[in-house]
Amino acid sequence: MHAIGGFRFAQPALHFRTLWTFLKVCPLLFLLVWLTPAIAAADTASMPAIAIIMDDIGYRHREDLEVIALPGALAVSILPHSPHADEMASLAAGAGKDVMLHLPMEPLQGEKNVALGPGALMLDMDRVGLMRTLNLALRSVPAAIGVNNHMGSLLTRDTQHMQWLMESLRIHGKFFVDSVTSHSSVAADVAQRKGVPNLRRDIFLDDDRGARNLQNNFQELISVARRKGSALAIGHPHPETIALLRTELPRLHSLGVRLVSVPQLLRMHSHDVETGTASAGVSAMRPTLH
Ligand SMILES: [Zn+2]
């Protein structure tokens, strides 16, 4: 090093060495910067997947808005003829959420104290009555790309009514998610036979709204996804459920799972069926009134 007037300058050879080192490292840096997102994306794509449907939308304005403001590709399932159906469908679509029709179906006798709401499919309906009711319900939520059942512990056991329903859904081009409100539900099986894309609910997030139960259910959702490769949850617009999802959804990546939309999950399952790797049965079925 030369010292002139108190300043020190590096020798020219040192500049060349630094430049040479930089030029050697530069392509490596470039490669690293270029590859890192691709590696991260591949890493994410191989993670177990969860999808979440938020049911019973259309009656509780503030909670419904909070559901739509949650991050990620959730589906919102809107009750037919509900007071906020149009507004919520439009806001949900604008927020990148999938819209579904949450179709009421007759429950068992002991569960009838819970309001079914308008637009319900009932066991005493004939084919024409069922199709008319379904068509009106679909017309009240025109943005719906698929349907899942609200309640229905009685009707989803009935093969004939499920056949009429699935034949109609196939004509309308809608998929079906069996909420599994009865262990004896034949809905998903009939949908499968009728060629309607379908899924079954694995976990109810909020069958009991206690903090510990919500957390346990969420952990169970993650466990099922890790075990089966994917899992489908249903939640409701309760403040406790919204608070849970607000906390947990942004940290899914650190739990090693990814959130996918319901149509994405359907595509994954149809691929599994084609390649013969579909997991059989439904885990953690806990029939409730939802
Ligand atoms: Zn419901």
Count the beta strands: 11
The level 1 CATH classification of the largest domain is Alpha Beta
Bound molecules: zinc ion
What is the assigned CATH homologous superfamily of the largest domain? Glycoside hydrolase/deacetylase
Mean pLDDT: 87
> How much strand content do the residues show?
15-25%
Q: What's the shape?
A: elongated
- What's the Cα radius of gyration? 26 Å
Structural class, from helix and strand content? alpha/beta
CATH topology of the largest domain: TIM Barrel
Total domains, how many? 2
Query: What is the helix content?
Result: 40-55%
Q: Unreliable stretches, pLDDT < 50, 5 or more residues?
A: 1-7, 277-288
Number of helices: 9
Q: Could you say what the CATH architecture of the largest domain is?
A: Alpha-Beta Barrel
Cα separation of the termini: 80 Å
Order of helix and strand elements from N to C terminus: EEHEHEHEHEHEHEEHEHEH
Q: What can be said about the biggest beta sheet?
A: 9 strands, parallel
